Every structure is written in structure tokens, then in C-alpha cells.
Amino acid sequence: MDSDRFKAFEAKLSALQHKMERGLADRAAALRAMADRLENGDEAARREIKTESHKLRGVAGTYGHQNLTDMAGEVEQRASMSPPATVGRMARELADLADATSANSQPPKAEAQEVKVPPAPPTGMSARQRTISERPKVTTSEGTALRVLAMDDDPVTQRLLKLTLREVGGFDADIVDSAAKALELLEQKTYDVVVSDAMMPDMNGKEFCAAARTRGYRLPIIILSAASPSELGWVDGVQGSATWMRKPFKPTQLVHDIAKVVEDQG
């Protein structure tokens, strides 16, 4: 990636992180409302707190907010079994930390967003064609760009994956927000690898792996999560079905790791 394109990517990445951090206040408000419901006898709020904590853990982990990631993981682990008063207190403490992270968020510096205007594309080549032709391609043995299907239900993480997979990796990437959509695309198109969030709204990563294997798809599947299989309560893990990768990730490292998984698994 040349200097100008790298600066442009960094500016987009910084803007995404700022947007994520500013959105933490909404997650904090949701957690407090769930805590109120649980303490008033609504046991369904336990699962909602667990799910929201996992989502918060994943988003915070993506951008390296370790304290927030760790606290969200603890709430996620204890939400199912601890007394309502304990879960409510922990959810509020997590909300307070999310609010503090949001309040400390700083917008990207103006100079970081300055991107050099690219030269006009050669005659007969559109701007999009020229941009694609300049990307550093990570290719298959046949010389084609890796075809990647990625899924995550968080909009900011979706945009981060899009930037990472398409602009850094030069992959031919599709990004969707549910496992059901991913399974539909697997029926319609051919991919070299799938990258899945651990917890999706319709099924988790382990369930997605099982569904994909049952349908006969043998391509590599990578589960990307701030938690480990044991932390999610997946006692038998996903051995033989998927490769586990942890958040936070550096875009260049994720591209390298995806390419290695595809190479190693053929």
C-alpha cells in the first residue's frame, strides 16, 4: 500500500474508531435499562445483558480498549448465574466505563484526513478499475484475488472489515450482517474462506460452522472474537471445524493470517 493510500486508510480507521467510541453511550444506556428490568424480576434481561456484554467486548476489543474488553467479558461470564442484584451492579459499572470511554473519545485530527487527490486514470480505464488495479493483491495459486465472505452484526465492525479485507488485503470480499445471509451467499457464490463473528443475532459462530459443514461446505472458516471458546462456554470448542483468531487485530496482520489459513488448508 503506497504512502497516500496508507494515510487515507489510517484516516478512515481513525474515523471509524471515533464513531465506535461515541456510540458506546447508547450501549451504556441499554445496559442500565436491562439492569433495571432484571432487578425488577424480568429474568429475560439476563440473556440480553450477556449478549450486549459480548457485543461490547467484541467492539471494544477490536480497537484495543482492554479495560472495557475485560470488564465486558466478566459481566458476560457472570450474567447467567449471579444474583440479579450482582448482575445489575456489574452491568451498571460496565455502563459507567463505556460512558467514560465515550466521553474521552477525540475526533480524528483534521490533518490526518487530508488525502492526496489521485491522478486521473489512464484513458480507457475508469477510476474504480484503476483503484482496484493498484491494490496489493493476496492471491490464490491460480493468481486470482482471494474470495472472502465475512459476517458481523455490528455496523462499525462491518466497515472495518470492509476496509481491511478490500483495501489492505485486496480481497474480493463480501460482508454481511447475519449467518443466514452468509449461508445464502455460500449457495450462490464460491469463496476461499469465511470470517465469522463468534456471536451473531441468529446463530453463533459454532452453530454457523455446524450448519456450513452439514451443507457440505469444506472451505476454511475463521472465527474472530475477543473471547476464547472456553470463555464463551463452548466446552468442545470448534476443533476441526474452524480456526480461532482473537481481537483486537491489526489490519495487516489479519490479512496475513487469513492468507496463511487458506494456504495451509488448501
Q: What series of H and E elements makes up the topology?
A: HHHHHHEHEHEHEEH
Largest sheet: 5 strands, parallel
Number of strands: 5
Strand-residue proportion: 5-15%
End-to-end separation in angstroms reads 26 Å
Total domain modules: 2
What's the CATH architecture of the largest domain? 3-Layer(aba) Sandwich
So what's the overall shape?
A: globular
> What percent of residues adopt helix (DSSP H or I)?
40-55%
Give the CATH level 1 class of the largest domain.
Alpha Beta
Radius of gyration, in Å, reads: 20 Å
Which class do the helix and strand fractions yield? alpha/beta
Unreliable stretches? 110-121, 125-137
The tally of helices reads 10
Structure description:
By secondary structure, the protein is an alpha/beta fold. The protein folds into two domains: 3-103, Four Helix Bundle (Hemerythrin (Met), subunit A) (Up-down Bundle), CATH 1.20.120; 131-265, Response regulator (Rossmann fold), CATH 3.40.50. Helices cover 55% and strands 9% of the residues. The protein has helices at 3-22, 24-39, 44-62, 66-78, 84-103, 127-134, 155-168, 179-188, 205-214, 251-265, and strands at 147-151, 172-176, 193-197, 221-225, 243-246. Strands 2-1-3-4-5 form a five-stranded parallel sheet, sandwiched between helices. Helix 2 (24-39) packs antiparallel against helix 3 (44-62), helix 2 (24-39) runs antiparallel to helix 5 (84-103) and helix 7 crosses helix 10. The longest helix has 20 residues, at 3-22. Mean pLDDT is 82; it is low at 110-121 and 125-137.
